[in-house]
Structures are given as C-alpha cells and as structure tokens.
TrEMBL record:
The chain crosses the membrane at residues 438-463. This is Atrial natriuretic peptide receptor 3. The gene is npr3. Pfam families: ANF_receptor (PF01094). One of its GO terms (cellular component) is membrane. It is a single-pass type I membrane protein. Keywords: Glycoprotein, Membrane, Receptor, Signal, Transmembrane, Transmembrane helix. Residues 46-388 form the Receptor ligand binding region domain. GO terms for molecular function: natriuretic peptide receptor activity; peptide hormone binding. Residues 1-20 form the signal peptide. InterPro entries: ANF_lig-bd_rcpt, ANP_Clearance_Receptor, ANPR/GUC, Peripla_BP_I. One of its GO terms (biological process) is signal transduction. The keyword Membrane applies. The lineage of its organism: Eukaryota, Metazoa, Chordata, Craniata, Vertebrata. The keyword Glycoprotein applies.
Length: 500
C-alpha cells in the first residue's frame, strides 16, 4: 500500500509541472528611485513598472508564482541618500536584491558596498564605462539597459563602414550627474584608435560658438550630447559657416527622452526656424531602438494610468521609457536566475551564483527579447534617425543597429549619399544601397562583425594609455575651480575620459 501511495505521488509530480517546478521563497527587494519627478526614472514613473512585473510573476501560475517579493522603495537623490540608506537598513536583515540606483555616482557607491556583501544589484542605469569592470568592486552589478559603450558600438560600426576617421565630441558637462560626459565617454573609449577630440561645454557659461566652429574645421564627424537649445545654436552657427553642405557629419545622442528629438526639434517659432530646418538636414540622431509587441500595449496603458493616478504631470505619459522597461525586466531576470539557482540546490543567499545566472542569457522582456552579454551588460539596439524630408523638416529612422550580432539593418529611407562626406573621400563601397531585390520592405543587413568589435575592445584595453590626440580645452570657470572637480569625486567611478 505505501508503495502505491509513493507511486501515486510520483505520478502526480511528473504529470503536474506546476507542482514540481514551483519553488516558494520570500525575497526582500530594496529599490532606489528618486522622488523628484524631474528624472525620467523617478519613483512615480518606474515603481508601477516594478509592481506590474511583480503581479505578473505572481498571477502567471507558472514556475515563478511561488516567489513572494517584498518590495521596499527608498529615495535616491543622485547623491548619497541611497548609500546611507542601504548601510542603515543592512544593520539588520540585508536585502536579497537591490534595484537601482540609476545615477552614476550614487550607483558606484551602492554597487561597491552591495558587491562586497554579495548582494545582486540590477540597474537600468549605471551606464558609465567604468562599471564594465566586473572583476572587483562592481562584481554583483547587472545592467539591464544598454550602457554607453554599447551605444558607442553604433558609431564605431558606422565609422568602419563609411571610412570616417576623425570625430569631435562636444558635450555639456553639468558637473553633477554628468550624463552627457559619460555618454560620450563611451564613444571615446571604444574608438580609441580613431582621431578623437573632446570639447566640454559648461552648463552655466554662454556658448562660444566661434570656438566650437574652429574645432569642427579639422574633423569629419561631430558627435554632440547637450540640451536641445544648445544643439540648435551650434547647428545654426555651423550653417552660417557653410559647414552643413555635406562635408561634415553631425550627430546628437539622445537615448532616453523621446520627446526631445526628431520631428520638430529644430522648431522654436523664432526667425531662425527656416535656417534651423536646413541645418538639421545634416544632423542625425542616435537613440535607443524601441520595439513593441502585443503584451506591451497593456503594459503601456497600465503605466499611463498609474502615472496619472499619482498626479504626475507628463506630456508623454503614454511613452514607456527605457528605465520603466528595464526595471520591469529586471524583476523577470532575477526570478529566472533565482529559480534556476534554487533548482540546482543554491539558496537566495548566494548572490554570486544568482548574479552569474543572470549573465550570458537571452529572455523575453516586456518589449521584446533581452540579451545579456557574458559580462552582465545588456546588448543594445539603436536607431539612427535622419531628416528625410528637408522641405517639411521631418525625421525618420533610417537604420537600426543590433548589438547582439553587430549588424546594421538599413531601412528603405536610408540614403548612402546622406552619409557620404562630400569633398573628401568616397564612401566605402561595402555599404550597399540595394534592398535584396525584394521590394521596399526588404532590408539589407550589413555585417559589422562582432569579432572586430571584440578586437577593438581588446586593443583599447591595451592601448588606452596611448590616445592619439586629445585636446582638452578647459573653460575659464573650470581652470580656476579645481575644488569643484574634487567635489565631483571624479575618480569615484574611475573615469578616464578627461584624465586622458
Ligand atoms: C529636482 O531635480 C531638479 C534637477 O536636478 C532640481 O533642479 C530640483 O530642485 C529638484 N527638486 C527638488 C524638490 O528637489
Ligand atoms: C525631454 O525633452 C523635452 C524637450 O527637449 C524637455 O522639455 C524635457 O524637460 C525633457 N525631459 C527630461 C526628463 O529630461
Ligand atoms: C555560492 O555559489 C558558488 C558557486 O557559484 C560557490 O562556490 C560558493 O561556495 C557559494 N557560496 C555560498 C555562501 O554558499
Ligand atoms: C555563454 O552561453 C553560451 C551558450 O548559451 C555558452 O556556449 C558559453 O560558453 C557561455 N559563455 C560563458 C563565458 O559562460
Ligand atoms: C515625422 O513626421 C512624418 C510626417 O508626419 C512621419 O512620417 C514620421 O514618421 C515622423 N517621424 C517620427 C520619428 O516621428
Ligand atoms: C541580428 O539580430 C537582429 C535582432 O535580433 C535580427 O533581426 C537580424 O536578422 C540579425 N542579423 C543577422 C545577420 O544575423
């Protein structure tokens, strides 16, 4: 009789995958998000995405429904709040998982302490180049949004295919969060074997467009990261000096704020609108590739409702940004890794094991496939936008770059002439214009070669001390204000950008 009971239980287990796969566990999650709504990753925006993931994991009746997430939100002020909070709270029970912070300097401190305690940290921020080094102090960090170096791959691939050689990196440096500084630092690092100049623009000082233009003259490609108004000022100045006739390429990088690029970004309703529209014909934008799938609709609707309920004023509430998407997917990724680890006999206490199971894997996120590289950083997909109708001044996505396989997808609107430097050398013949004979919808993939990227990364690693030309022009304010630099804890995330 006991034999039959055993057999019965055995069959029940074999036939009921839910029963055999569900593992129950309580998980303490500590989330750092700013209350201040001027951030795209504020609590009011991102918390609903985390709650949404939590509910879906629970409701799925699937293998993760046994996980019970106990989520605790704390403020992050992009300074030291998150660190102090983590330390205070951890005197008692340490959290099992930390989500955030997003801001670079704050994340650096939190991730260091968390890594020391072997607590997994997943952030849709911490995008600076230095976080890529996971050997020591950032060992338990998983980056669920594509970092700035991943973005830079888009540029290195373009430079390769179009035989561009030199670039000027123009960025606004606010000396606080330094988003633009870190954004272009990624390009600077990845493209160390090109001729790269940097030019910081201080936030407070008026823009010296003459000096900027002087620096543009001896380069081919200008890559900018700064506020929309300053970009317009520079484009207008370049237009007046006839630099927008095709012998220079202009790019701006705007990854997260969908409302600030593309159609109408040149328009201000002043007397310069017409010039600006013409100037912007040579300004291209690199941004994150956004994908949607059926699940996404309901997510997006739910997010919009939650944001309105919380009284958040936003023009673009329907636009789910990368931070919302990323922190949602962070919950899924952790659940997958924890489940796998527990099935293999580990517990939630082994943060090292869980972290390693989050890396080098692909899973289905809320907006599409999410691919994590072996270093625990998400592979990035980026879109290149260009003005395709100069009369109307409208923008279209002309190409997409897929980080996972290092390929470009050229869309029908792509025009090789637009990306050919005029009055210099011819564009590389390898960038084909044909569309595979399948009609307008057919897309031409150009293989960039992940191998090349890897070689460049390795090459960079060994030769980064030997940047070819780096002119660091400092504004007056900066020279007589070295105290401010110290206050930035410049070495705090081991940035080599301006130190080069
Ligand atoms: C929110 O952040 C912005 C930009 O960093 C800052 O100007 C503002 O003072 C902050 N608001 C509060 C209430 O802290
Ligand atoms: C996004 O861009 C728009 C237009 O440039 C700007 O008004 C808005 O403040 C930006 N939002 C954030 C959170 O940076
Ligand atoms: C955690 O897992 C690793 C294997 O990934 C193992 O070497 C280590 O001993 C485990 N640590 C604890 C505290 O169990
Ligand atoms: C990454 O995953 C692939 C297959 O999924 C595997 O072949 C490879 O060995 C893994 N790499 C590392 C470093 O774990
Ligand atoms: C810009 O406007 C044009 C025409 O209205 C439209 O076809 C295009 O999709 C828009 N581009 C973007 C990026 O929204
Ligand atoms: C590269 O990856 C993208 C996205 O996963 C896919 O659509 C494309 O077909 C791939 N290209 C090649 C050449 O494998």
């Amino acid at each position: 009789m006991p034999y039959f009971t055993t057999l019965f239980v055995y069959f029940l287990m074999v036939l009921n995958p839910v029963m055999t796969n569900t593992i129950t566990e309580d998980i303490d999650v500590l989330v750092f998000l700013p209350q201040n709504n001027s951030f795209l990753f504020s609590h009011a925006r991102v918390a609903p995405a985390i709650r949404y993931a939590q509910q879906r994991l629970k409701a799925d009746r699937g293998q993760y429904s046994g996980f019970s997430f106990n989520i605790h939100f704390e403020n992050s002020d992009c300074d030291s709040d998150a660190l102090f909070n983590l330390v205070d709270r951890s005197c008692g029970q340490k959290p099992d998982l930390i989500l955030g912070p997003v801001c670079e300097y704050e994340a650096a401190a939190v991730v260091r302490v968390a890594s020391h305690w072997k607590i997994p940290v997943i952030s849709a921020g911490a995008l600076a180049t230095a976080f890529r080094d996971k050997n020591t102090e950032y060992s338990h960090l998983t980056r669920i949004a594509p970092s700035y170096v991943k973005m830079a791959e888009t540029f290195s691939a373009m430079f390769e295919h179009l035989s561009w050689k030199s670039a000027l990196l123009l960025y606004e440096d606010d000396k606080r969060e330094r988003n633009c500084y870190f954004t272009l630092e990624g390009v600077f690092h990845l493209m160390a074997d090109h001729n790269i100049k940097t030019y910081p623009i201080s936030e407070e000082d008026p823009l010296n467009t003459d000096d900027v233009i002087q620096n543009i003259y001896d380069t081919e490609v200008v890559i900018m990261c700064m506020g929309a108004d300053k970009i317009r000022e520079i484009m207008l100045a370049a237009h007046r000096r006839q630099l927008t006739k095709g012998s220079y390429m202009f790019f701006n990088v705007e990854l997260f704020n969908a409302t600030s690029y593309g159609n109408g970004s040149w328009k201000r309703g002043d007397k310069y609108d017409n010039d600006a529209r013409q100037a912007y014909a040579s300004l291209n934008t690199v941004t994150l590739l956004r994908t949607v799938k059926p699940d996404f609709e309901s997510f997006s609707r739910e997010m919009s409702k939650s944001m309105k309920r919380s009284g958040l004023y936003c023009k673009d509430c329907e636009n789910v940004n990368m931070f919302m998407e990323g922190f949602h997917d962070a919950m899924l990724l952790y659940a997958i890794a924890l489940h796998e680890a527990m099935k293999n006999g580990y517990t939630k206490m082994n943060g090292t094991e869980i972290t390693s199971r989050m890396w080098n894997r692909t899973f289905e996120g809320i907006a599409g496939q999410v691919s994590m590289d072996v270093n625990g950083d998400r592979n990035g997909d980026f879109s290149l936008m260009a003005m395709t109708d100069v009369v109307a001044g409208t923008y279209e996505v002309v190409a997409n770059y897929f980080g996972v396989n290092g390929t470009f997808q050229l869309l029908p609107a792509f025009n090789i002439d637009h990306f050919t430097l005029r009055g210099r050398h011819k564009a590389h013949p390898e960038m084909p214009e044909k569309s595979c004979g399948l009609g307008v919808s057919a897309l031409t993939g150009v293989i960039v070669g992940a191998v090349l990227g890897t070689v460049m990364l390795i090459a960079f690693y060994f030769f980064r001390k030997n940047y070819r030309i780096t002119i660091e022009r400092r504004t007056h304010g900066e020279e007589c204000d070295s105290g401010k630099h110290r206050q930035l804890r410049e070495d705090s995330i081991r940035s080599h950008f301006s130190a080069a």
